[in-house]
Design a protein that fits this description.
- With 176 residues, the protein is of the alpha+beta class.
- 29% of the residues lie in helices and 32% in strands.
- It has a single domain, classed as Alpha-D-Glucose-1,6-Bisphosphate, Chain A, domain 4, CATH 3.30.530.20.
- A 7-stranded antiparallel β-sheet has the order 1-2-7-6-5-4-3, covered by helices on one side.
- The two termini are 23 Å apart.
């Protein structure tokens, strides 16, 4: 999965509760780091929330779900217009790694510069229920596709129809 010329777009479960998903992004690494740590940039592909890089510092991630997609691609009724996650910074090594609390688990973002590109590896630990694994896998996949479009200056895919299609694909990929 870490070959310089390839990163499978689909995430994989490396054990029963850990998802790993990767994307190649145009560098430099400091630019991509800013999309992980700066609220105004992070909200364009994931969620806003001011971040203090200090171990244990609180972090509230705020998703504005209607802002992620186009008006002709409304969010499913099961998702609120806004969602908040109370989190905290666990560890960081600028501009190479960041770990934050996420529900009962955590998420680590690792950045590996390779020439003029950066390999982003997202590792989400603590996924227990299969339905959560499926939804979270589709979510990370779609959010990272938005990040790729944002940092590449290309038109992003529409979020909710993309997420729905990916959810079906992950239903087939994630074991029962």
């Amino acid at each position: 999965m870490t070959d310089q010329n390839q990163a499978d777009d689909f995430g994989t479960l490396t054990d029963r509760s850990t998802l790993v998903i990767q994307r190649w992004l145009p560098g430099p690494v400091e630019r991509i780091w800013s999309y992980l740590t700066e609220s105004d940039k992070r909200r364009k592909w994931l969620a806003s929330g001011e971040m203090t890089l200090s171990p244990g510092a609180p972090l509230e991630l705020v998703w504005r779900n209607d802002d992620l997609s186009r008006p002709n691609d409304p969010r499913p009724d099961s998702f609120p217009a806004e969602h908040r996650l109370e989190s905290r910074v666990i560890a960081f090594d600028p501009p190479h790694s960041l770990t934050i609390a996420w529900g009962d688990g955590d998420v680590t973002f690792e950045l590996q510069p390779k020439g003029d590109r950066v390999l982003l590896t997202v590792t989400h630990r603590g996924l227990v229920e299969r339905s959560g694994k499926v939804g979270v896998s589709a979510g990370w996949h779609m959010h990272l596709d938005l990040l790729v479009a944002e940092v590449s200056g290309t038109e992003p895919a529409t979020f909710w129809s993309g997420w729905s299609a990916l959810k079906e694909a992950y239903e087939d990929r994630i074991p029962q």
